[in-house]
């Protein structure tokens, strides 16, 4: 996708209707003058081959976030309490406070900055930062 400055809309014009009524008219036609067999089913349209990259990314991105959340919130507290010597007392609370200040608060700042400088610049900065920091 190399569409700078405008929104990508792969189904533009597919569902635009010139008719106001949603009910069938006297000739047995439904929405936009199409018969029931001619109307497009939204689920079939969503799983078309051209939409597979968007569907795959919409599945994998939450999985990536979920894995990172599990490691940083659940596993880190277990690691600090049971696997290191000496154990960290109050590991859950240490982890909770660290995640509040390390994940939650910066999200609001990053959203505000994204509105100010643009999402492409913020995403580029984030990718470079992760590449450098590891």
First CA to last CA: what distance?
27 Å
What is the general shape? Answer: elongated
Instruction: Count every beta strand, where a strand is a DSSP E run of 2 or more residues.
Output: 0
Determine Rg (CA atoms, Å).
Answer: 24 Å
Mean pLDDT: 78
Helix content: 55-70%
Determine the structural class based on helices, strands and strand pairing.
Answer: mainly alpha
- Major sheet characteristics: none
Distinct helical segment count:
4
Order of helices and strands: HHHH
What is the topology?
Blueprint lengths: L41 H5 L5 H32 L7 H27 L1 H15 L1
Task: Describe, in plain words, how this protein is organized in 3D.
- Helix content is 59%, strand content 0%.
- The protein is built from 4 helices and no strands.
- Helix 2 (52-83) runs antiparallel to helix 3 and helix 3 packs across helix 4.
- The chain is elongated.
- Mean pLDDT is 78; it is low at 20-26.
Q: Top keywords for this entry?
A:
134 residues, mainly alpha, 4 helices, 59% helix, elongated
Give a quick summary of the entry.
With 134 residues, this protein is mainly α. It is 59% helix and 0% strand.
């Amino acid at each position: 996708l190399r569409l700078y400055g405008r929104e990508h809309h792969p189904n533009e014009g597919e569902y635009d209707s010139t008719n106001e009524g949603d009910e069938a008219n006297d000739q047995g036609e439904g929405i936009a003058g199409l018969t029931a067999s001619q109307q497009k089913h939204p689920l079939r349209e969503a799983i078309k081959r051209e939409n597979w990259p968007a569907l795959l990314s919409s599945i994998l991105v939450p999985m990536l976030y979920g894995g990172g959340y599990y490691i940083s919130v659940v596993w880190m507290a277990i690691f600090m309490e049971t696997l290191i010597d000496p154990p960290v007392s109050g590991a859950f609370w240490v982890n909770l406070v660290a995640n509040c200040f390390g994940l939650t608060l910066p999200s609001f700042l990053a959203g505000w900055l994204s509105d100010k400088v643009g999402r492409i610049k913020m995403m580029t900065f984030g990718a470079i930062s992760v590449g450098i920091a590891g």
